[in-house]
Amino acid sequence: MDHLYPLPGNIPVNHFLALPRPDHGLAAAGTPDTSTLAAHDFDVDTRTGFMPPRPLARLPEEWQLWERALDDARSSRLQLGDKLSLAPEDAATSERWRDQVRQLPILPTDNLRRSEVLLRRAHHVLAWIMHFYIHSLPEYVNEIRIPPPVTLPLLQVSAQLQLPPVLTYSDDVINNWEFIAPPASAFPPRPPALDNLRCQTLFTETRDEEEFYLASARIELRGVEALTLMRAMMDEAFLGDATAIRRITTYLHTLAGVIRELTTILADVRKGCDPDVFYNVIRPWFRGADSDGTRKWVFEGLALDPALREPTELSGPSAGQSSLIHALDIFLGVDRYSHANFMAGKDRDGPTPMARAQSAPAGPALAATPATPAPTATFSSAPGSSTVSFLDRMQSYMPRHHRAFLRHLSSNPRPLRTLVETSGDSGLLEAYNAAVSALKVFRDEHVRIVALYILVPSKKARDASGKAREEGAAKGTGGTDAFQFVKGVRDQTADALLKPGQ
């Protein structure tokens, strides 16, 4: 798993990221045999897990017009277009910036395709520009028209990455951090210190927004030990003898301790992010089309590239897109319980950063063609079923290498839960339940924060304004009741606990 993220021009020719980008079966029917793939093929790092050891900070000169447009949006301190007390001068500043975006040339993306790192940075920059553009528009604009200088390159880059052309968890968290104090070596051998992180890009330039994203980043980094433990347990399960059972028992107790630390990090979001600031000032910026009221998003200029199609997945970022929590659910065999009854009602985000990540599918069939700008995921939650859980759908918003990792994990021929059920070892059963219980407690905290960050401020907004736009304000950005969603997932996680003799 020794893949690194050097600057694009310094990637060795035989480096994983410099090779033709495999789709790991994601663009073809059927389930690929990934059992022989090295871990680095899944873009998982020993020090930072699903996070890159050092995200690219800026694109090369060829695409600096995009970087400068994003810089200008941030330095201009653009305001939300539906802000109740929006000053005329702020509205004028926003319109000047949007006009500059409309006047940009349509930059070619061909040279971005040589590097996955470049593509990821391009998706980050263009998606942030698009959200600045959309959410700074006046509230009376009923049809949002995204100009061709943003539409074409964003959809082309998204097609290459097999991601939707909208802000994702990867854009807000995974590829949105840097060191406060850079380490002495280019790529330190240990995970970064959790207090040595800051964000690259913000909408509001507030500490609240930065702490919101960094809470997720810290959970991802602390979760690296969980990935290490999972790998060790899979190796032991391959042997399955008495020694292996004892080791797995110890590893599970350690895993439970790691998950408890993730809960503490999650709870600490309260220290840096005020609920009212989150709800009223931060959250509106990363709404996707699913939660933008009745306003339709129109991508202009599609006819200029016949390979592009109208996007169908535009839900925006959610920590439900975090591969770490999905991986924990799959590994523990909790996924069949934790989101069984939540179908494709397009619920998007709870208020917490990482904790919105709820669970993972047992291995749905994913299909996306490289020519599709917003890859449509085809899921099957049951034979002959056309429904899909919200959490299954979120896999189409993950980096495709991470989707491949989850597929690989879900196809494990020696599942941990089956081993626990068949071993008859009471110590192993107790250790397994300790890990599941820790995951349930993690979701207890999530439920509390949803109430604090969504339910309470939404009620305040409704009572204060009485406006129709506050109707349904307590819902997730995908339209489903956020509190009921996370509460249901929490309750069903508890159902995964095993009873003696079960």
From TrEMBL:
* GO cellular component terms, semicolon-separated: cytoplasm
Q: Which Pfam families match?
A: IDO
User: InterPro entries annotated for this entry?
Assistant: Indolamine_dOase, Trp/Indoleamine_2_3_dOase-like
Biased composition range(s): Low complexity = 355-382
Gene3D superfamilies for this protein: 1.20.58.480
- Per UniProt, which keywords does this protein have? Dioxygenase, Heme, Iron, Metal-binding, Oxidoreductase
> Where in this protein does the record put region Disordered?
344-382
According to its UniProt record, which protein family does this protein belong to? Belongs to the indoleamine 2,3-dioxygenase family.
What is the protein name for this chain?
A: Tryptophan 2,3-dioxygenase
